[in-house]
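Review form for a predicted model. The reviewer records the input and the model, then writes brief findings.
Reviewer: anonymous (R2)
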Amino acid sequence: MLLDTASMYFRAFFGVPEILAPDGKTPVNAVRGLMDFISRLVDEYRPSDLVCCWDNDWRPQWRVDLLPTYKTHRVVEEVASAPDIEQVPDPLQVQVPLILEVLAAFGIPVVGADGYEADDVIGTLATGAGQPVDVVTGDRDLFQVVDDAADVRVLYIARGISRHERVTNDWVRDKYGVDARQYADYATLRGDASDGLPGVKGVGDKTAATLLGRFGDMAGIIAAAQDPASDMGPGPRGKIKAAADYLAVAPQVVAVARDLDLPRTGYALPRTPADPDRVLALAQQWNLSGPAERLVNALAG
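Model under review:
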């Protein structure tokens, strides 16, 4: 089970009412919510391995170099020698270090890669895993890793953990009219404002799905647009040709990395906390006793 950790703690922050630590000022709702999310998922699915995938860089410079609009609307401050500063509510930002402390105390692996996003860590660990993989996320970007043949699916939590959906290739095809392997090209064509992807002007969901259904992938679509003998209509042909510069770089931005140099072992689900005394201390200091007890019980099975 691969967790898109930031996606989960953002949803915990906005979905769980404000709860303060005993100091009367530090919010802990995102920490508590994430712990309970993990407990519920472990209870329901009993994964053999569990990884909290981390954004070491939420907006990698190499993606920005290819597409300057990438996530630009979320930037608070650009930093030359480090990841840009993301727009994160202060009451959530103060909880992120505590989340890391709690995960470490429980012995739940946190895995990131410098210069890459959690999506890239997920893409790498989900590819060639040699066992079934569940990817937990509230973001559609990761539908591209769904692979029925390799038993990789997404547990989509956009509507909440209790109402999550099990995303398979049929689910993607029913909803979007494309196969999961085509989803990255589909997103590139139609655009995604949440990631700063402008898309191809005049190409929406239906046209994107139709083009992929007829021409297979982005390379096939571009080749057909450039080929006067192809049966691509003049409208789509003109739009694809007009977006040539965007289409030359956007697919690399949208596609998750699948070949990062990451360990493939050491992710076994801990049955007991790695540091029980630290778990107890954190629970007492930060008003986490209930979630901590639930997570201990969930891990123990």
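Findings: Residues 29-45 form the longest helix (17 residues).
Further findings: The first strand starts at residue 2 and ends at 4.
Recommendation: see findings above.
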